[in-house]
Amino acid sequence: MQRILVVDDAELNREMLAEMLSGEYLIEMAEDGEQALQRLAEHPADTVAVLLDLQMPKKDGISVIAEMREGGFMQRIPVLIISGEQAVEIENQCFELGVSDFVHKPFVGSIVKNRIRNAIELFAYKNQLEQKVEEQEETLKKQYQIIRRQEEKQREEKPFNRLMMEYRAAIMEVETRLTVLNAEFSQEYNRNPFEAIKSRLKSPASIYEKLGRRGFPLTVESIRENLTDVAGVRVICSFPDDIYRLAELLVGQDDIGLVREKDYIKHPKPNGYRSLHLILSVPIFLSREKKQMMVEVQFRTIAMDFWASLEHKLKYKKNVDDTDEIVGQLKSCADSIEQLDYQMQEIRNKIESKTRE
Ligand code: 0O2
Hints:
The chain is of the alpha/beta class and 357 residues long. The chain has helices spanning 11-21, 33-42, 61-70, 88-96, 109-189, 204-213, 220-226, 240-251, 302-316, 323-356, and strands at residues 3-7, 26-30, 47-53, 79-83, 101-104, 194-201, 231-237, 257-263, 276-285, 290-301. The longest helix has 81 residues, at 109-189.
């Protein structure tokens, strides 16, 4: 049941009001301002209205209203003044202080009940609206924070995405130049120097892992300055001499720079890995500028690629048993592949010389 606090120093008034309202509400009574504030503090949530006399001992009605305002009660609970014949100025002052209405003496039951009911309903409606507005404000605040975070993320990601776009452009540039050479060879000599091209952009996770492992800062500038293998192109040739011919032609192009060469064909790794690695500086042409980008180009024969793919699996599989035995077998396969590559090349040379005769 909703609770109404009746505050009046005149017992008769309190009793009359209690009698009128007790069928619909739970009535709480106080005979002065201090008691009224105590009762309110005891039932802050379920008190739905306060009927308040203005002239009382200890603490008068105006002081009670002032303290209720301070405590935030006036925003939630309607206050109706129990009035005799008040002066207009006092009524005005009361309204200005946030009082909802007046119940005049002598009390007329139906009027008192209606005024109280109206005030309670109005406040409930107002409180509901305020709560909705608060909830909407909270939702808007959260949405605003999400949008801000997304904007920040986009701002941070923009230079990274831009750099990745530039590396993709550099890959396309190298692929195009190789494809053009392949087309020319095909037309002039009726053979293709490479069988396939596989390209890849290093993933953000491996980029940051490599920077971290090598102690470089994790920034976009640092990627550009310290990594040479973000853009990777793998060229799979049929024969070893095609590898050197293609590499020479590519490096010979006047706007491509050779930054570093690692020849693991002439100097295989101890595990048997063979490939020719070139770090190239390749121009890309953007709308407002020309940029040089690093691209790692790996040249291999089909057989070397077959070997490297299998060996790569061993590197990333942690729980492989008999690793020493597998390493030995792979090394022996690498040696056989080397022999096979050159034997095949010799056979091709013989066939070509016969064809020329
Ligand atoms: P991923 O995932 O292939 O990109 P660098 O990283 O170039 O500064 P590093 O590692 O000395 O320094 O360069 P290197 O020796 O030229 O190797 C570069 C890439 O060649 C490797 O890239 C592999 O792709 C390949 N590679 C090199 N050695 C081996 C090998 O023994 N076996 C196989 N299967 N591939 C090899 P990442 O960064 O290791 O990995």
